[in-house]
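The records we work with from here on pair a chain with its fold. A complete example follows; check for yourself that the lines match position by position.
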Amino acid sequence: MANLRKELEKCKHPNSRKTKALGKKARRQNNKHKTRMGHAIKSNIMGEKLSWFLGQIDEGRTTPLTPQEFEDLIALYLKRFDEELEQIALKQSIGKHRANQHAARQDVIKITLERERNEYQSGGMEMLNLCDPLKFKMLFDWDGSALSVQHLKLDLVSFNMLQRLKEPQASGQEMETA
């Protein structure tokens, strides 16, 4: 970027071909940088999500989650901001002038939860399928860095998918009792 700035300063005329070429080069570098930042932000968000799930699972556990346990864990994940929302509501109820003090944070939380809930109910949340033994092991082997998230094979985990996984287990238990 510094080299581009120096070259732009050397250009005599603002409409010359060289000036336009340098401007195009600068825009291209800027767009590349924005794209890289977008991928980094997505990796950080996914890393936080995976570390939350890792923190909720017992360290000594070696067997993958059952679909019911996974469903309960996702329900708990979708309620992770409830305490913070209660605190904001409490602060807003105390004084007249503080009614909008934490409105931005509250809106961000509500939008995030609504989006995640909609993803889970419809198409699926992008994350590791913790019912799969290989992916369960991958989560425990993960080093916790956002950079290594890209090496994990993520699935779309939805409510319907977990219901389908429950069905074979339910029919298998019925056969054992018969």
Q: What stands out?
A: The first helix runs from residue 2 to 10. Strands lie at 125-127, 155-157. Residues 2 and 96 are 51 Å apart (CA to CA). Helices lie at 2-10, 17-56, 67-78, 82-94, 103-121, 133-141, 159-177.
